[in-house]
Every structure is written in C-alpha cells, then in structure tokens.
Design brief:
Structural class: mainly beta
Number of strands: 21
Strand content: over 45%
Helix content: under 10%
Distance between the termini: 19 Å
Number of helices: 1
C-alpha cells in the first residue's frame, strides 16, 4: 500500500556570477529527515554568507526558522534559531544601524512581528509587533531615504489566498502606526502578480520577486519585477522575467528567490511519498 504523496520543498544555492549562472547548476541542500527547507533569504554578515530558511516539520505540520552558513563549496546547517507555538516561514532578514532584524511570516498568529538578533546568527528575540489582528503573509521592509515601506500580502476576504499586495509606510521602523500609501491598498490584486516571493538588489536597482499561482497549483512559478517607483504616494514596478519550474527534471513548482552581490538561493517543490519523507 502506497503512503500518501506530499509536497516537499528544497533549497539550492550558487555563487551566481552576476546572475549568469544557470539555475540547473545550483547546489541542492539536503533536507533534514522528516522536514523540508523553503523560502530562502541570503544574508551577508562579517564577510560570511548565510541562508535563512523556513524549516517545516511534517510531524507537527509547523514551520520554524533555521539558518545555514555557506563557506565556499561547504555548507553548515546551524539548525533551528526561532520557534514559536505557531507556524513561521518567509524569514526576511535585513540590517539597520548595524543591527540585524527579521520579519518571519506569522500568519497563524494574526500579526506582523519584528525580531532583533542578539547574537548572530543563532539568538533572536521579539522586538516589536508591528501590526496585530491582521491576516498577512510574506512581509518585506524597505528603507528609502528616511522612510520605511512595508510590502505585505493581506487577505481582505475569507478566501485566504493573500494575492493582494498592500504597502504601508512609517518614519520609524518600530512604529505603532503604519499609514497606507496615498494611491490606496491593495496596490496589486492579482494571483499572478501580488504575493511576495523574495527581494534582491542588482546594479543599484531593487527587484521584487512575486509568486505566480496556477489553478489549484500554489507557487507554480515566479516573476522578477524591477521596482520603478516606491513613495508615500505611489508604487510602480515592471516585470523583467519569469522563472518556470523546468530547470530540474522532477520539480513541479518554484516560488522564491533571494540574492546578495555574490550568492543566490532558490526553492522548488517535488511530490514525495510521506513514508519516504519521514525516513530521510
């Protein structure tokens, strides 16, 4: 008797050589037994590269946040660094005033939470709840001049598909009040464009990655969009490229990409039998 098939993500990385390296050449990270890694965010700290990931445990159907250290061709899995009573994913990591922060997705807790790193990369503590009583996922913060912009996916209906991109701003990272930009939210309401799937900078430009969902096919592929305008009044982006799940033979979806000046990481999905997942 076959065990049920489940969706299992994996993460791969590469030194991207000015984004010229083929995705098929990225090095896949082995998933821990009974778990999977997804939503990678690349971050450089003291000349070393790290990849922060969602670390999903099948045994309790819940995600934690874990981190890997990348040193040349070697990788060191440093295990779980943030765990709560609820699911965590999408560990967006950024720096401000020489301090390192993270906003992991905490949709199950109905809030947007800001964590501060106390001892990099393993020790974190909750610094501030930026929004409460909100159905939000995959939040990204950007600083332009002296203004912080929050790009987040909020579901205004009961469908909980989070295909709406909402943008808020504040002059204070730890503000209790984030104002919607003047053009009004959502700035994008489209399952083919709205949901965040990563962020990266290249040649002094900023690129937002968005998940592309198919019918009954979550995270089928992703787009790369250049942010043309981000202000208190308006948001404009331009689609640059689309990445389909065809760079490895047996994958069925890809929905996240992150990079710094040298390292990039991507995730992708396969179907596997649950019995196999729990064994390795």
């Amino acid at each position: 008797m076959f065990s049920p098939r489940v969706t299992r993500y994996s993460v791969a990385y590469a030194y991207h050589r000015n984004h010229s390296k083929s995705l098929s050449q990225y090095k896949e990270i082995s998933n821990p037994k009974g778990r999977f890694l997804a939503d990678p965010f690349v971050f450089k700290y003291n000349d070393s590269n790290y990849i922060f990931v969602e670390d999903f445990f099948f045994k309790d159907n819940k995600g934690r946040i874990s981190v890997l250290k990348i040193n040349g061709d070697k990788q060191e899995f440093l295990d779980v660094i943030i765990e709560e009573d609820f699911h965590l994913s999408f560990p967006y990591v950024f720096k401000d005033d020489n301090k390192v922060y993270m906003i992991p997705e905490s949709h199950e807790n109905q809030d947007i939470r800001l964590y501060k790193c106390i001892d990099f990369p393993k020790k974190w503590e909750l610094e501030k709840v930026l929004m409460s009583n909100v159905s939000a996922v995959d939040t990204i913060l950007l600083k332009r001049d002296d203004t912080w912009f929050m790009l987040t996916n909020i579901c205004s209906s009961n469908a909980i598909d989070h295909s709406e991109l909402h943008i808020f701003y504040s002059d204070n990272l730890k503000s209790d009040f984030w104002k919607p930009i003047a053009s009004g939210n959502p700035v994008i309401f489209d399952p083919l464009m709205g949901r965040n799937g990563g962020l990266f900078y290249h040649n002094k430009k900023t690129f937002r990655v968005n998940q592309v969902h198919g019918q009954a096919h979550y995270g089928k592929s992703f787009n790369v969009n250049e942010i043309i305008l981000l202000s208190k009044n308006n948001y404009i982006e331009k689609k640059i490229s689309k990445v389909n799940a065809n760079f490895i033979n047996d994958i069925i979806a890809t929905h996240h990409f992150s990079a710094n000046e040298s390292l990039a990481a991507i995730d992708f999905t396969r179907h596997q039998r649950l019995k196999k997942v729990l064994k390795n």
